[in-house]
Amino acid sequence: MPKVTVIMPVFNTGRSYLKAAVDSVKRQTYQDWELVLYDDGSDPDYLPAIRQVTDGDARIHVMYHTKNHGAGYARNACIRASAGKYVALMDADDISAPDRLQEQVDFLDMHPEYAFVGSNAWMIDDYGIWGRRILEKEPGKSSFLKTLPFIHPSVMVRRDVWNAVQGYSEKKRDYRVEDYEWMMRLYAAGYRGYNIQKMLFYYREDSRSYKKRKYRYRIDECRMRYVGFRNLGILQGHIHYVLKPLATGLVPAGVMQRIKRIRYHVGTDFAGSADIPTSGDIKIFVSHTSGSSNVRVRAPMFCHVMAGSDFQHGEIPKDMLADNTGDHISNRNRFYCELTTQYWAWKNMDADYYGFCHYRRYFSFAPVRYAEDDCGCLVYPYLDKKYGKNYIRVKRKCIRKLRGMIV
């Protein structure tokens, strides 16, 4: 019998997202787990995709229903069908850091006074990490006034605690707020939670997330807040927090998204590992033609390299690599192009996957396959005609100059 059950409701989730989520569970350093996937009424052709993602792993169990009942119902069904002492929550479009389960199991084993444990999280979309959420370590009852003080899918809860409060609400009026309602019931029953102050989770929030937030759900949230605050004994003097969802519901989705991007922005110099876990070791080599550039992302995935180092003047910054070490052709680069960086990286750097870009360009993490041109370049397809013509002219000029450098 596994000690940990990971539960994951699925409803027409993007297949690449689902695969990344399931793969992140498979890569856990803690391996005494089972994963219960519940297909909550997805399209008829979706179930084979789920089975393909499981890849015959006996630890992964798939349940399904032809009708959509909502996340609360799906989570309850998963837990009832599972066996773990601890239940790790997770959504099908999020990613768990490799040490998430180990950290949370160790915490619950050592701290019986806490009913559940969550963590801080990186905020992600299709383009990578755009922010981070640092949560209160030990939320109290009043912490629920402004917002839910836990990232719900990052939580691991004791099974007996889930049983004690009879699981999630399956009422239609709690649709979209069942996580908030459930956690307030836990606190009202005398249970407490804790947030590990480590980045153990990657929480997806993009433009599609805001399109789901219909105004009628705001009305339901007001009712849920009123009941929850009353049961927690924090309602008096805080009616404005009950009505808060009505006000925020009037803010356009794009504006609300922008506000959150500002609030949780991490900047370009955040510390620690922020690379999204992948199935292999990815390195992206960013070519620089000037050591004075301050456009440098501080994440292990990115390697910043001075192109044409043999021809550069001045000291190369300590946080940059140079393409004139080991097996290299830097001395043939008079035009400061990316070719010598690419040659150097392939010959001297170890990775499963190599990516290259220029420091003044954007590296796209979108799950889109762009067509190659006649030079093997992947070209963004939305360039205007004027820029496209100029690109072709410059490319031909570069080809003429590079012919003497081909190795």
From TrEMBL:
Name the Gene Ontology molecular function terms of this record: glycosyltransferase activity
Q: Does the keyword Transferase apply?
A: yes
Is Glycosyltransferase included in the keywords of this UniProt record?
yes
Q: Which InterPro entries match?
A: DUF4422, Glyco_trans_2-like, Glycosyltransf_2, Nucleotide-diphossugar_trans
Q: Which residues form the Glycosyltransferase 2-like domain?
A: 5-159
Per the database record, which ranges form the DUF4422 domain? 298-367
Question: What keywords are assigned to this protein?
Answer: Glycosyltransferase, Transferase
Q: What does the sequence similarity comment in the record state about its family?
A: Belongs to the glycosyltransferase 2 family.
PANTHER family xref list: GLYCOSYLTRANSFERASE (PTHR43685), GLYCOSYLTRANSFERASE EPSE-RELATED (PTHR43685:SF5)
Mind telling me what this protein is named? Glycosyltransferase 2-like domain-containing protein
